[in-house]
Design a protein that fits this description.
The protein has 426 residues and is α/β, with parallel strands linked by helices. It is built from 11 helices and 17 strands. The C terminus is likely disordered.
């Protein structure tokens, strides 16, 4: 067994985890970052997710990450640029990165009113590591660290426990250079120039069986390269995302759907007759799994009200209630066209794991309900959460404090938030 000691341990090297580790390391704390795959980036690399979605008002490390990736796209594809840039940024910050490393258990001890994470055990290539830290951040997306610590969590929607479906993202090349077709979402109507409308064609193909029964929209995103599109279309419902055998079956079904979607495009869309797949995710894309119970559960009602919080660490977060139908094709609400809430805030209390003194969450596994999660789960919002979690963890380590003892105003200042009370001088 190898024992490692740090100020901050971040588990999960996706958008939220990268931002968290960078924030903690730049604050001068000795930081380790554990990632189960062979590169950093999570959704933006291993799951092949582009473009960056969502928005926030407060400046954060995510803005820096996105700009550096965009600058690197002059010499490679967006996904490859992300792999390079994130490795560079981690190295520059002095983060100790552990790739192909999975947290498997944790030791916790009781405190006066709660529990404290004392250590986390992880395995990589047959070697067991024990990590100790002052502060721990679960940025796994699936809430894996919180689960092995024994934290409470929600999963799925209240009515039946179903989660959003899984997908495999991929890119195609060989589109005729003068073809301008893109389709970003369910209300992005596109005239094909021959009397047909693209979204209507997708729905008809779903009904006829030309597309899978769960696929009634084939989203096409620009990649910055002529003749290429990123495709977000494959979808598999009713899969439990924490079951490894179910994941294997999902991988098979979704890879099969890739061929079906490509044939639909080749046979029906002007300019797409000679396309072929030139890249895809290395893992099945999971939209929803555990949501770790925190000191506050962020609700869809909070989002629609644009609710403000004294302990807000993300401001003016904005994205639609993007619920890919857990039990069918398209969107789950409003006849397939998602609702868009008011710009909203995310409170720090939704990132403090209930019942634990030194365990934070960041990204899609924070404390929220099924509908709220569908908005805040996207990359720009997740990176803003990660930045805040990393700052909070650094303060915990610096002062020997619990997650609830830190001065939240210091976190807010660090992530570029000026609350009303501060602005008025009170």
């Amino acid at each position: 067994m190898v024992i490692k000691q740090y100020d901050t341990l971040v588990v999960g090297g996706g958008p939220a985890g990268m931002a968290a580790a960078l924030a903690a390391a730049r604050a001068g704390r000795k930081t380790a970052l554990l990632e189960r795959y062979g590169c950093l980036g999570g959704g933006m690399t291993s799951s092949y997710v582009r473009p960056f979605l969502g928005s926030v008002k407060n400046a954060n490390i995510g803005c820096e990450i996105e700009k550096r990736i965009a600058d690197a796209e002059s010499f490679c594809s967006p996904v490859e640029a992300a792999k390079i840039v994130l490795a560079e940024m981690a190295h520059e910050a002095g983060i100790d990165v552990y790739l192909q490393t999975q947290a498997v258990s944790a030791k916790t001890v009781p405190t006066a009113e709660s529990r404290r994470v004392e250590s986390v055990a992880a395995v990589s290539h047959g070697t067991e590591y024990t990590f100790t830290a002052d502060a721990y951040i679960d940025a796994t997306g699936d809430g894996d660290l919180a689960a092995v610590c024994g934290a409470e969590f929600f999963i799925g929607r209240d009515s039946d426990g179903l989660v959003q479906p899984m997908s495999v993202m991929f890119t195609v090349e060989g589109i005729e250079p003068d073809t301008g077709l893109v389709c970003r979402h369910e209300e992005d109507w596109q005239d094909l120039g021959d009397g047909r409308e693209y979204l209507d064609l997708c729905r008809r193909a779903c009904e006829s069986g030309e597309l899978p029964p769960s696929v009634n929209i084939v989203r096409l995103y620009e990649t910055g390269r002529r003749g290429e599109r990123m495709v977000n279309a494959t979808q598999l419902n009713r899969v439990f995302p924490l079951d490894p055998r179910a994941l294997a079956e999902a991988e098979y079904e979704l890879r099969t759907q890739v061929r079906q979607v490509v044939l639909f495009l080749k046979n029906n869309i002007p300019g797409f007759a000679h396309i072929r797949v030139n890249g895809s995710s290395v893992t099945t894309g999971v939209r929803e799994s555990r949501r770790v119970v925190g000191d506050y559960v962020l609700s869809a009602e909070d989002l629609f009200a644009g609710r403000r919080f004294d302990d807000a660490v993300v401001t003016d977060a904005h994205f639609c209630i993007d619920i890919h139908n857990p039990d069918g094709a398209g969107q789950a609400e409003r006849d397939g066209c998602p609702y868009t809430p008011q710009p909203y805030e995310i409170p720090y209390r939704s990132m403090t794991a209930k019942g634990f003194d030194n365990l934070l969450t960041a990204g899609r596994c924070i404390s929220g309900d099924h509908r709220a999660h569908a908005s805040y789960r996207v990359m720009r919002i997740c990176m803003a959460m990660g930045h805040a979690a990393g700052v909070a963890a650094a303060l915990m380590s610096e002062g020997g404090l619990t997650s609830r003892e830190i001065d939240i105003r210091r976190v807010q200042r660090a992530v570029g938030i000026r609350k009303d009370a501060e602005a008025s001088g009170s």
